[in-house]
Design a protein that fits this description.
2 copies of one chain form a homodimer. By secondary structure, the first copy, chain A, is an alpha+beta fold. Chain A has 5 helices and 5 strands, in the order αααββαββαβ. In chain A, strands 3-4-2-5 form a 4-stranded antiparallel sheet. The two termini of chain A are 16 Å apart. At the A-B interface, α1, β1, α4, β3 and β4 of A face α1, β1, α4, β3 and β4 of B. The first copy, chain A, binds a DNA duplex through residues 22-24, 32-36, 38-39, 42.
Chain lengths: 158, 158
DNA sequence: GCGTATTTGCATGCACTTTGCACACCATCT
DNA sequence: AGATGGTGTGCAAAGTGCATGCAAATACGC
């Protein structure tokens, strides 16, 4: 685990909020000079504490109005099935996130789609017929209470 | 839904990948001049197609090694309970994402934590005792197969 | 076709970034 | 104490990127 001091934490928190902050703005926020922020930011990028910067697009504005979570149970727990399923997940780019889980479902997928027809297509035409998949249960998101995309860095402060 | 042409889509895709691209880099990627990219980017920001830019922090590097999904069922479906639960979710900043869902669980939470003890604390000390909550089921993430954070913009082309 | 509106590239002044450099601070060893 | 090396800092200057005005080019309506 990498050495990160209070200045770094402040910078990380600020950049989590606004990934395009200039070094000068950062400097004003954390109380260092711009050059120092530049250097520290480079260090954090190089050490991969900052994995990258991404524009956050408004899905609704672009017509992606439907988010759904899909719980998947595999047919059998053979390595072969797991591998095939992984390939499926990576091939379908409507699948935004995929996790393997403890508990009664094997995998949890998050998909972002334009309409119910697309969800139906994914579930009935792509997932259900796939040989590795035994069981599919999908839930549609009714409301997004919270979607912070931010780590609770406050937990790291001392 | 907002008017977005091919240039915009290319820019959005590029900025999804790297939110700190300069206008000049953007220009080279999409085939416009830098000034034009600047103007278009400003437009996309103003029209909230670009909701923001965020640094993507490496959770593991900072000690957040545990991701879990928590399914919640509310005690009763009163508006009062829903409101109380919302407040709870917003207060606890270990809860990164929260959705209300169709299907057999009412809510799905995503938490990012430092260890199992923290998960236990959230589940047993915060969620379970809360008056609005009837049932809690948590699943730990074993593997992250995919975590793209990117919209499949290709669906919008042509 | 002709006029209007929009989009484009270029040029420019301004702001931001990055680098070298000198200095301050701290720990360690003699 | 004093010397030594490492790290972190601000400042200044040179390089780089950004935003805006402007004129040319393109698209659009009638």
């Amino acid at each position: 685990m990498i050495q990160v001091d209070t200045f770094d934490l402040k910078m990380l928190a600020a950049l989590q909020d606004d990934g395009r902050l200039t070094n000068q703005q950062l400097a004003d926020l954390v109380g260092l000079s711009a050059s120092q922020c530049s250097r520290r930011r480079m260090r954090l990028e190089e050490e991969k504490v900052i994995a990258g910067y991404h524009a956050d697009l408004a899905g609704e504005a672009l017509g992606f109005e439907l988010i759904a979570f899909i719980h998947i149970t595999l047919a059998t727990h053979s390595p072969d099935n797991a591998k095939k399923f992984r390939e499926l997940v990576n091939r379908v780019d409507d699948i935004q996130e995929a996790y393997s889980l403890t508990g009664d479902a094997d995998y949890l997928l998050k998909v972002m789609l334009r309409d119910l027809k697309s969800l139906s297509a994914i579930v009935n035409d792509v997932l259900m017929p796939h040989q590795s998949v035994a069981h599919v249960r999908s839930s549609i998101v009714l409301d997004r209470l919270k979607e912070s995309m931010k780590l609770p860095l406050r937990a790291l402060e001392r």
